[in-house]
Amino acid sequence: MLVKALCLLITALTNLVCCRPPASAKTVSSKEDKIQAENPLTDVNLDIISQITVLATTSYLLLMILADYFQDIPAIQQLCILKSWHIAVVILNIASVLLRRWSYKTLDRFFTYQLTIRPGHQLVKTGPYRYLRHPSYTGLLVNFVGTFGFIYYEGLWDVFVAFATRIAAYFVHHKTPMLSTIALLSPFSPHVAGAGFPDITLGLSSGVWLILIFTALFIYLMWARIVVEEEMLRRHFKAEWDTYAKARWRIIPFVF
To answer: Is the dihedral of CA 85, 87, 88, 90 positive or negative?
Structure first.
């Protein structure tokens, strides 16, 4: 259990580091910088992500410590079990942090959390930017999916389903008609379709679906930002940007 806890803490720490901006991002000359407005619906607040990670990790660790008191709930018991894919996530997350910090160092003062054109702005072609247009996003994507998967897949999501199913089963027999009806109609009720919450849908477990949905949502938010960012760079650098972009993949080498 100690090794599993250590892996969880390392995973969470890498996420917090990935969400932390470089010191250069705080060096802003407001009169000279040209800041591109973003859609607030697609602007991911990394501070909130960090807080959620801390809360989820703390909850995970507490459940691991209290696992002996929940012997009848397999979902909590499995939190203490270290699996090979957990170690793979830790390795990938460490690599993602190194890639993101490398991107910070390479861009230096040109790396900002806001989409910004700074005085003397240049297209950086060294470090990870020799191969990718947005290597820091690559690191962020790998880290977010890895962290989310570690915490929720065969983890907190299964615990949530277990407790929600028990609560729904209790309220089905509640004396208050409204609560009883709501519980009966909820997907967690054991009386719905005679089985309750479906663990397998289209051949995939609910945990896998959760990871797929999260990944798709994160890629969408990232793509929405990339579109705005690349248009800003195209307007500023014109033909130089087109030449630069043609020689590099956006996020994933040889794929996209």
So the answer is: positive
* Amino acid identity at 237: F
**Domain assignment present for 60:** yes
Domain that holds residue 205: 2-24+38-246
Total tally of structural domains belonging to the chain: 1
**Per-block average pLDDT, block size 10, for the chain (256 residues)?**
96 95 62 69 81 97 95 93 97 97 90 78 92 95 96 93 78 64 58 52 77 92 91 91 93 86
Q: Is residue 129 part of a domain?
A: yes
Compute the distance between CA of residue 116 and CA of residue 245 in angstroms, rounded to an integer. 18
The CATH number of whichever domain residue 42 belongs to comes to: 1.20.120
Three-state secondary structure readout of the chain: CHHHHHHHHHHHHHHHHHHCCCHHHHCCCCCCCEECCCCCCCCCCHHHHHHHHHHHHHHHHHHHHCHHHHCCCHHHHHHHCCCHHHHHHHHHHHHHHHHHHHHHHHHHHHCCCCCEECCCCCCCCCHHHHCECCHHHHHHHHHHHHHHHHHHHHHHHHHHHHHHHHHHHHHHCCCCHHHHHHHHHCCCCCCHHHCCCCCEECCEEHHHHHHHHHHHHHHHHHHHHHHHHHHHHHHHHCHHHHHHHHCCECCCCCCC
The crossing angle, in degrees rounded to 10, of helices 135-151 and 84-107 is 150
